[in-house]
Design goal:
This protein is α/β, with parallel strands linked by helices. The protein contains twelve helices and eight strands. The protein has helices at 16-31, 48-54, 81-86, 97-102, 107-119, 132-136, 140-152, 157-160, 181-199, 201-206, 217-224, 241-248, and strands at 5-9, 38-42, 61-64, 91-94, 123-128, 164-167, 208-212, 231-234. The structure holds 2-phosphoglycolic acid.
């Protein structure tokens, strides 16, 4: 059975002190409920180890928002997958559209990053999604298919099964414009289909596919009710413990 997951993506927000405070708030809030999903927060590199110290990872998973495409060496300013793992984090977001768009990440780089993450026992939360123009000109399914094929289809079935995917239409990220429940379902079912053709039904049925893009407490329940939507990757609404919990409790 595939897992239901709500994961926060804090992006480049919060100072260390604010971030530790937010993590503590989410951790406290989780003690009071029995969530029907796994809950994860992905935080800036600087926050990983201190956040790890204040959360109970049996209830709240911890992840990074990126990792380097090398495992060590002369790459000033980069943070490697082994470094992320050494903080206690067990997840890493890879291929976020902001990384692709502003930092030139390509499928080739991402292939390397996914391999390094897996070698270091980190679970990649791998993001895919089309831009507005591709949605409007009708190529959005092909675009997402290519993103998956190029970066991920070199993996063995065993390794592919360790991934979490996040469909994040770029036009919905941080814009307040969410995909409709049906638009999300169409894409998620399509993604499962693409995976089934490569890896078979068992793998495609068991992989968790999250939706991301202006997901909030008011629209989460509708999205999560769709059969192929297994949860959310939450940006803006994860920066406030109450709204993040509102999404967790949408399950
Ligand atoms: P958003 O971001 O929820 O602020 O739209 C989602 C994401 O980029 O992961």
């Amino acid at each position: 059975m595939r897992k239901k997951i709500v994961a926060g993506n804090w992006k480049m927000n919060t100072t260390l002190q604010e971030g530790v405070g937010l993590a503590k708030d989410v951790n406290e809030a989780l003690k009071k409920v029995q969530p029907k999903c796994d809950v994860v927060i992905c935080v800036p590199f600087t926050h990983l180890a201190p956040v790890n110290d204040v959360i109970d990872q049996s209830k709240l998973g911890l992840g990074a928002e990126n990792c380097a495409d090398h495992d060590k060496g002369a790459y000033t300013g980069e943070v490697s997958a082994p470094m992320v793992a050494s903080t206690g984090a067990t997840y890493v977001i890879l291929g976020h559209s902001e990384r692709r768009q502003y930092y030139g990440e390509t499928s080739d780089t991402l292939k390397t990053k996914v391999n390094l993450a897996l070698q270091n026992n980190l679970t990649p939360i791998f993001c895919i999604g089309e831009v507005l123009e591709q949605r409007e000109n009708g190529t959005y399914l092909d675009v997402v298919k290519s993103q998956i094929e190029e970066a991920l289809f070199g993996l063995s079935a065993d390794d592919f099964s360790k991934l979490i995917l996040a469909y994040e239409p770029v036009w919905a990220i941080g814009t307040g414009k969410t995909a409709t429940d049906d638009q999300a379902q169409e894409m998620h079912a399509f993604i499962r289909d693409v995976i089934e053709k490569q890896y078979g039904k068992k793998v495609s049925e068991n992989i968790s596919i999250l939706y991301g893009g202006s997901c909030k407490p008011s629209n989460a329940a509708g999205l999560f009710a769709k059969p192929d939507v297994d949860g959310g990757l939450i940006g803006g609404a994860s920066l406030d413990a109450e709204s993040f919990m509102g999404i967790v409790n949408a399950f």
